[in-house]
Design goal:
homodimer; about 425 residues; alpha/beta; Rossmann fold; six-stranded mixed beta sheet
């Protein structure tokens, strides 16, 4: 029995998959504070032109630039692995596969969008990127991408994670990036939250406000977003595309696809190319999105227009949200501490194509430990949400006898998150 | 151009390669304090019977047990990668390949021998293993192996590394292993060093003394060694065997092979199967072993009989040594802080088949940073010694125009060693 799919270069996609032209309806467009749709001119104050084009395109296939594809070749395709040991221990008729995005330089799926974003910035003659990061996976990926394309980088890192994962700062510094704990005194947005609470743990929404504020005040810099936007979901689609070819190589096809959700991008990455196959009548698959109970955007939030950041500096997006002011407790899965959800993922939840569930930190870290002991890969706390759901589904299969083929996204490794397992 | 070799299961060896029957002469046998060769009965107080058999066998091919091979399948074959970016930046005619042993659960080559050692212990009805660890790679690998085969584990971790890399303890604890900073008060050996210096940084030699002392006093436990011994070199030979097939798949053959050396096992692993090809007249290859200048066993030590540990509890081995009492300064490459060298590696150095060189910590960490920025893989401080030598050799090739094919062993990742790069 094969356990690994091939890592041959032929698997690496030449185009991104755009789910939008296949949807029965589109999410309503982002709007300004006056309620009218924002045009590309609003976005151009924040993003390079290539990113705006990726944000609005309705082409079903979008070419990957040669420069970006060369950078992808350093670490892609990522391996697809069958969890044979886990299947054995769970005594399940289910087959469990995982796409492992943690083998790359930054240790997570985030490089998939960091590279095109840095490339587009450099192409527009921009010299500096400013961004936010939660647990540090995004900041790490972007620091490598900026290093490759010759850009400076400033990262506002959510304070709770900054304190929990100090080595992420070291990693970003190694690649030439600067890191500031958020909320910081460097911006008005940050200062206003620090005034209320000098020990404020921060949130992704606040860190986004700080990054956006800096970019709006500067000319030669741009903003980069690690999740949520249509363009980011587009870039992550290479995960699902590779998975389709790799599952084929393994002689199977998934009946259930599982991913964790914070802003929604790793989930979109593995799911959207398969959702295209469902929407075109070529497959039947159950999609499960797993979020933390303390930040239950999809399971308890409302679908409405809301700001992407905490201070109301971004346009409003139609998305499931807990309110832009929501500050989740400082759980170890810092990358899932976001009040909103990608509009495209939100729309698919509304259409009934994605089932959201919420798990406690205790449950997911337990699953992460189990996975480490059995499969021998130490997962990021974010990714343990997907693992816990895959295990639950495989146990269900044991009870029902159903021959499920489960595929989940193991979005990143947990070597820089080990303290999460220590303190658990 | 292919960048990755296949990870298909067909590459995984079914037998270890034993270099001993191919050598023109054998290293003198280990001796007791009276100078006469030690027999298997001395070894059986420390090691399971399977390990003793692997230590003394003269068969050229030694079968890998099915149980061990099943465990290898979780992470092997490891990838062989061509460093195309590094070649480009160095502007060298050399082709640079690396075998990356850091993708496995424990993050280094150490799992290759941890698994058979734990398997042989369990097979003999032993319930507990005691060992030493330097930087923690060996302790991590053995904790996973013990977890797999149902054994308890006690690890004496060199204090300098215990303080530098606290998350290694967390990692070993996660797998059910216990960790003690060495020298400790738990043993007479440890106590005697602590008496001289309560802040003693420790050394691999001292930690080995502590582990051996514990095992000699107990019945149902055994000792495991992470490097040095013939059996460990035998187990690591799967690295070189896979490399031969993977280089073939890439359509090339190495003209130079480079590895870092502490006890010598990762170097032996990649080199010995190729040395067999040289000894049988099928190849011509330059072999380079790189050690730290502050622990210059091969470049400044003497070839003589010496104890494997600091307190004289083990047999004496014919090896290059700095003296069993030598305590190197607490460099970040804790895995290379050993006073001796594998007898087989020592013997091949004496025969002139391996060229040893020594590099400073400053130089190797600089090379590690460069590699991280260019190739996007964060190496362990030990492995950066091999990287630095590969870079030097590639730069030489640029000057001479020589079309070298360099292969080096990237023995482990540096995610748990990030502080090394921070403090540099």
């Amino acid at each position: 029995m094969r356990r690994f799919s091939s890592r041959g270069g032929a698997l690496l996609p030449t185009e991104y998959t755009n789910i939008k032209p296949f949807l029965p309806s589109l999410p309503p467009p982002p709007v300004g504070t006056d309620g009218s749709p924002v045009g590309p001119e609003v976005l151009s104050a924040l993003f390079p032109s290539g990113m705006i084009q990726h944000e609005i395109t309705m082409e079903p296939r979008v070419p990957i630039s040669d420069q970006v594809r060369d950078a992808y070749k350093v670490y892609r395709p990522s391996p697809l692995i069958r969890a044979v040991e886990l299947e054995r221990v769970l005594d399940t008729p289910a087959h469990i596969y995982y796409k492992y995005e943690g083998t790359n330089p930054a240790g997570s799926h985030k490089s998939n969008t960091a590279l095109p974003q840095a490339y587009f910035a450099a192409k527009d003659g921009i010299s500096r990127i400013t961004t936010e990061t939660g647990a540090g996976q995004w900041g790490s990926a972007l620091s490598q991408a900026c290093n490759r394309f010759g850009l400076d980088l400033d990262v506002f890192m959510v304070r709770a994670s900054y304190l929990q994962k100090p080595l992420r700062k070291t990693f970003i510094n190694m690649h030439g990036g600067k890191v500031y704990a958020s909320p910081s005194k460097l911006t008005e947005s940050g200062g206003s939250f620090l005034e209320k609470d000098p020990e404020h743990p921060g949130s992704l929404g606040i860190a986004i406000s700080e990054a956006v504020e800096v970019v709006l005040a500067e000319k030669r810099s741009c903003y980069s977003l690690g999740s949520v936007s249509d363009a980011v979901c587009l870039h992550q689609s290479i995960i699902g595309q590779e998975s389709i070819l790799q599952m084929e190589e393994m002689g199977e096809y998934p009946t259930e696809i599982i991913g964790c959700v914070g802003g929604g991008s790793n989930f979109a990455g593995i799911a959207f190319p398969f959702i295209e196959q469902v929407l075109t009548g070529n497959a039947e698959i159950k999609f499960t999105a797993v979020e933390p109970t303390v930040c239950p955007t999809l399971t308890e939030g409302k679908l409405k227009y809301d700001f992407g950041d905490a201070s109301g500096l971004t346009p409003k997006y139609m998305m499931y949200t807990l309110g832009a002011g929501f500050v989740p407790p400082p759980i170890h899965a810092g990358g899932l501490r976001y009040h909103g959800m990608a509009p495209l993922v939100s729309h698919l939840v509304k259409l009934g194509m994605i089932d959201p569930i919420a798990y406690t930190q205790e449950k997911v870290l337990e699953a992460g430990k189990k996975f480490t002991l059995i499969e021998g890969i130490l997962p990021a706390p974010e990714s343990t949400h997907a693992i816990a759901a895959a295990i639950d589904s495989a146990i269900d299969a044991r009870r029902s006898g159903e021959e499920k083929i489960i595929l989940f996204n193991l979005s990143g490794h947990g070597y820089l998150d080990l303290a999460a397992y220590e303190n658990d």
